[in-house]
Design brief:
The complex is a heterodimer of chains A (271) and B (285).
Chain A (H helix, E strand, L loop, with lengths): L4 H28 L15 H7 L5 H4 L7 E2 L15 E2 L14 H5 L19 E4 L15 H5 L7 E8 L5 E8 L9 H5 L7 E4 L1 H4 L55 H6 L1
Antiparallel strand pairs in A: 1-2, 3-6, 4-5
Chain B lengths: L9 H5 L1 H28 L4 E4 L2 E4 L3 E4 L1 H9 L6 H17 L3 H6 L2 H14 L12 H16 L9 H11 L5 H14 L3 H6 L1 H9 L5 E4 L11 H5 L7 H5 L18 H5 L6 E4 L7
Antiparallel strand pairs in B: 1-2, 2-3, 4-5
Classes of the chains: A alpha+beta (271), B mainly alpha (285).
Chain lengths: 271, 285
């Protein structure tokens, strides 16, 4: 081996330039790991930092996606410019995930960047739907839109309609779309179908959408005490004995607060 | 353009086709491979799916780029078996055919750097600096080390080879900026700089094909008329000297792993000194 002073110096120069180049690429990678919230990874994608180590950007998932919602990000491709270049993503408002039963995109992935352990699409966690704009959601305005609830592939589990009294009229119900993160797959059908000009419900990556409860908290109604008994039972709702105008709550007896009106026979006779 | 055919030139001695055979075959090979990838999305004919980083041929045979997979492994992710098999198939092929056959016959960046080199020859640009030949090996090693530290496949954020072929197959206009940068780098900064001295993908393929069977031999070295056309056209001219001139006890076969088996020396040589053969071929006249 040639170990002259000149060869050593040249080698050192090569090594230094190589380290600078590689370091620059690594820095660029670090910056690119901050994925914009509207870019969702395909089902089964590993957490973002692991994903960017595992994905070889071959596009096989894109090719096998039946609704063709997946694409490989390119520079200057709108949103895509901030998604690590060449990696697959989709925008729910554009085309949501169709939640194919066979999960062809995961099967196509040669590296497991889309985790092959995911075999039930209902367990996918592409993100979590969040009703981000309560001020414009039609159901919050007191209307019965319900579209996000109706299109949800995991209807009544991932999105439920929760009944509340509308304080503005004091005599109407509001049925508020409510997301349950444990059942939500993040497919984005709710975001796609929201009838507003801009969707009031959006799928966000879980690390953005979700809070985290202090680990010392115990939900007394779920967790038993040291004796294994619930700390307290279900709260008892104080229900009215007699109908109160504008009150939607059922009576304690279980009867409807407002029985269906029966028209007097004379009224029918008029007709 | 009706250029004069010089009597001593390859075209004059062998005719146009024989003086451009391997160049045209290579361009055809490069275009055909990208074309096969495009048949799927354009004509619903899925012969090969994916791109040069990873693909699936006829829904059975996986292929994976070894350097991309090396970055994945360095980032401590164990891929599915299909990616490992794919890399195995690719490594086995290039170990026999010559590692840098990828660079000359497959990689679309080759056409770009060849164009830069052609412009340099045609317009007699002699400036620029020659980079250290070991740079690309250092870079390949540094990329793997940085991938291990960062846990990311880091070269894929900048890799002009991946970006160019992906832009061709999947679209993406601004990725051409990287391709243009490589072109300008080769044209104005370092002659034959990118492919020969920087690209760690090529370095990996050179390593894979270090003992490859298919090689070019200067078998008819006695016919050499010292016109130096082969040196001028070769992307790695340093590999020709010893086998052609029999220096340092070298046999006639070009065994240097930097040789891309592009066959351009065979094309441009009027007296037909060179030819493809296997590495154990000792024949010489």
């Amino acid at each position: 081996m040639d170990l002259s002073r000149r060869a050593l110096l040249k080698g050192a120069a090569g090594a230094t330039s190589a380290c600078l180049l590689a370091g620059g690429a690594a820095l660029l990678g670090r910056v690119a790991s901050a994925r914009p919230a509207q870019a969702l990874r395909p089902p089964g994608a590993l957490p973002e930092d692991k994903f960017l180590g595992a994905c070889i950007r071959c596009g096989l998932c894109v090719r096998d996606c039946p609704p063709k919602n997946l694409r490989l990000s390119t520079w200057g491709d709108g949103l895509g410019r901030e998604v690590a270049i060449g990696t697959p993503y989709f925008e729910a408002r554009d085309i949501p995930c169709e939640m194919c039963e066979g999960i062809p995109c995961v099967k196509a992935c040669p590296t497991g960047a889309l985790d092959h352990a995911l075999t039930d699409i209902n367990r996918a966690k592409m993100g979590v739907a969040v009703l981000v704009d309560q001020e414009n959601c039609l159901n919050y305005l007191g209307l019965r839109c319900d579209v996000c609830y109706r299109v949800c592939p995991v209807i009544d589990k991932a999105i439920t309609l929760e009944k509340f009294s509308n304080p503005r009229s004091d005599r109407h119900a509001m049925l508020l779309p409510t997301v349950h993160a444990d059942a939500c797959t993040g497919c984005g059908k709710c975001e796609k179908s929201c009838v507003l000009e801009k969707s009031a419900i959006k799928v966000l990556p879980a690390q953005i959408a979700r809070g985290e409860l202090g680990h010392h908290y115990r939900k007394g109604w779920e967790t038993g005490n040291q004796a294994g008994r619930p700390r307290f039972g279900q709260p008892v709702q104080r229900l009215p004995e007699t109908p109160v105008a504008g009150d939607l709550a059922p009576l304690r007896s279980g009867r409807e607060a407002y029985p269906a009106p029966t028209l007097p026979p004379s009224a029918e006779g008029v007709k | 353009m009706n250029s004069v055919v010089l009597p001593g030139s390859a075209v004059g001695m062998k005719g146009w086709w024989h003086a451009h055979r391997f160049l045209l075959l290579r361009r055809f090979s490069q275009a055909a491979i990208i074309g096969l990838f495009l048949l799927g999305p354009l004509a619903e004919l899925w012969i090969i799916k994916g791109n040069l980083s990873g693909s699936l041929v006829l829904d059975v045979l996986p292929l994976t780029d070894p350097f991309v997979l090396a970055q994945v492994l360095a980032s401590r992710h164990l891929p599915e078996t299909s990616a490992l098999i794919g890399a195995g198939v690719v490594i086995a092929f290039y170990a026999l055919a010559g590692g840098r056959v990828f660079c000359a016959w497959v990689c679309p960046v080759n056409a770009v750097t060849d164009l830069a080199a052609w412009l340099r020859r045609t317009f007699k640009f002699t400036g620029g600096r020659t980079l250290d030949a070991s740079l690309r090996n250092w870079l390949a090693a540094a990329v793997l080390a940085a991938s291990a530290i960062a846990g990311l496949a880091i070269w894929e954020f900048v890799n002009p080879v991946s970006m160019t072929q992906r832009a061709l197959i999947f679209g993406g206009s601004v990725a051409w900026g990287v391709t243009a940068a490589v072109f300008l780098f080769d044209l104005f900064i370092a002659p034959r700089g990118w492919c020969g001295h920087v690209c760690p993908v090529g370095a990996t393929y050179a390593l894979i094909g270090a003992k490859s069977v298919l090689r070019v031999s200067a078998r008819h070295a006695s016919r050499c008329n010292d016109c130096a056309d082969c040196y001028a056209v070769c992307p790695e001219p340093q590999v020709i000297v010893a086998p052609l001139k029999g220096k340092d006890g070298s046999g006639p076969v070009i065994l240097d792993s930097a040789c891309t088996n592009c066959g351009r020396c065979i094309d441009v040589c009027g007296p037909d000194v060179f030819g493809f053969t296997h590495r154990f071929d000792k024949r010489k006249d």
